[in-house]
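Reminder: ligand-aware prediction takes two inputs, not one.
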Amino acid sequence: MESPVRVESQLTDKGYVPVYTTAVVEQPWDSYTDTDHAVWAQLFERQKRILPGLACDEFIAALDAMEMTPDRIPKFADLNPILHAATGWELIGVEGLLPELTFFEHLAQRRFPVTWWIRKPEQMDYLAEPDLFHDLFGHVPLLMNPVFADYMAAYGRGGVKAHGIGTDALVNLTRLYWYTVEFGLIRQGKSGQKDDLRIYGSGIVSSKGESIHCLHSDAPNRIGFDLERIMRTRYRIDTYQKTYFVIDSFEQLMDATGPDFAPIYGRLATQESIPAGDVLETDAVYHRGTGEGWLADGDV
Ligand code: PHE
Ligand code: FE
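Here is what comes back for the chain with phenylalanine:
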């Protein structure tokens, strides 16, 4: 393992320029400052307070099972035995973003890369790249769920394969990650009725503003999960999502993504991408967004 370095991506006049590193590092726990621990405490308590009733039951249950607490930044070494016993996953420390293939290979081996550094106090509500709070609080709890844990490993294997196929396949697969792992909603409800929508996406649960926006705002679309539709849909990296996709269950996600994607990539290669905010006639619409506050351009 190498010594940790805080790598910051740059905001330049050409926009956001990410920096990629491959190093796996020991979490430099002793070097966290009081401010770092205080930032963790504030973010953790804020999300714990608002997420009941918004986040899915599996997420809330896993947060408790993992024994993450607000008083100090968790040690990966303390979380790993719990996580490993539940689903065979392990956390590894990284500087920040990884090259795609490296990331996929880790996932396929059930290693989840967690950025070791935490945001500054002035970045409580937004930062342009993943930090420890997003990676640990956002992604790790659902890795305690056996079905979701299998989905993430299958995604890693699928990523290695897509990487060998080409750039277009990777674009399609990345959209799937974005609209499920990062920004997914799930149907859930009292007494098995499944009439409420809840959050499971890590990009949402780690954001106070989007946790409320995705479920309670009239602006965004909320649409039933459809694999190929999602793989054609562009997305936002700089604003709340214009569209969220809703799964019925993690089993549905696992089943839908089980088949070989190679023929799907072939089919999608000849189709136009779909703008982030569009609603199609074939969509199962839970809510048609008003589009309030949307920017006209900037979908990626
Ligand atoms: N079945 C996919 C493939 O053949 C693998 C995969 C599984 C991708 C789950 C994403 C999520 O590529
Ligand atoms: Fe993420």
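The mean pLDDT is 94. The domain at 10-287 is CATH 1.10.800.10 (Phenylalanine Hydroxylase). We will return to this case in the review session.
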